[in-house]
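Q: Please design a sequence for this.
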């Protein structure tokens, strides 16, 4: 399911914990790829979802002690 964005044309993912709307400021060649520098113009998040961090191929919750999820 998709939702309309407020600042850019790309749609938002309805069930995501958070979505960033960005405007591309610069594009640089990086070998056989492109590297983009963008400005975040809007942030949408679900306050009832606890924040998590991805590190070393794992997902951790923000608690008083690091807790591995999944």
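A: Design:
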């Amino acid at each position: 399911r998709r939702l309309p964005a407020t600042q850019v044309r790309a749609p938002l993912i309805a069930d995501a914990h958070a979505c960033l709307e960005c405007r591309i400021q610069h594009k640089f060649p990086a070998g056989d790829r492109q590297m983009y520098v963008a400005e975040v113009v809007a942030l949408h998040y679900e306050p009832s979802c606890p924040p998590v961090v991805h590190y070393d191929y794992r997902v951790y919750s923000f608690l008083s002690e690091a807790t591995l999820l999944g």
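Q: Thanks. Anything notable?
A: The chain has a mean pLDDT of 86. The two ends are 25 Å apart (CA to CA).
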